[in-house]
Amino acid sequence: MNSNETLARQGYLMLPSVFSADETQRIGQRLMDDLTAHSGPAVLKSRERIYGSRNLLAASPWLCDLAHSPVLDELLRATLGENVGLVRGLFFDKPPDRSWSLPWHRDRTIAVKDNTLPTTSFKNPTLKAGIAHFEAPDQLLANMLTLRIHLDAMTAENGPLAVIPGSHLLDTAQEKHPIVLSAAAGDVLAMRPLLSHSSSMSQAGTAAHRRIVHLEFAADMALPDGIQWHDFLPLQP
């Protein structure tokens, strides 16, 4: 089974060693420098430490360039086509002294410019860190792909991600048993937004962080009902 078939059937694909140790370290340092300099509600802090961002592209638009890594560029174009664009960037850290968990869920919301417009396609408008969001229709979400760049190793120790293979197809007959994933720093997880996933707490006493750069890509700039993406950064040829 090739990469495209694996992604189509399982809803996720782990891409090993996309970025070297030096590249991963530089990405992490540049990102933290950007977030430190960027003020606003989209930068999430606890105890004066940055642990996340809901609007990463405002601080670090250069993250779009990471998609030009040959393996990522090839996967994005093969999966979403030549009109693919980056539509949202998130960052989170699971620091050892401030761990958290997430129940099983699917990523159904997208960031938009205005969620007060009338629409029959979108529902449940919300504001997250000052950014307008809508819950998107399944057909739109099925034409999106998320890339999660691991800046740290993801192990049983630091609250790893678990997924239900096949759950992105929204057909319980095609779902497999849940799998707990692991990754090395520099690995990239490609996953469909409709893939059911969860995250556990870090183990007590761990010193390991789990930093993730979460980048969401869409197949096209156009959205139904005149709704506009909050950001759409096309992948240049």
Automatic annotation (TrEMBL):
Cofactor(s) demanded: Fe(2+)
Transmembrane portions of the chain: none
GO molecular function: 2-oxoglutarate-dependent dioxygenase activity; iron ion binding
This protein's UniProt keywords: Dioxygenase, Oxidoreductase
Domain of life according to the entry: Bacteria
Protein name per UniProt: Phytanoyl-CoA dioxygenase
Biological source species: Blastopirellula marina
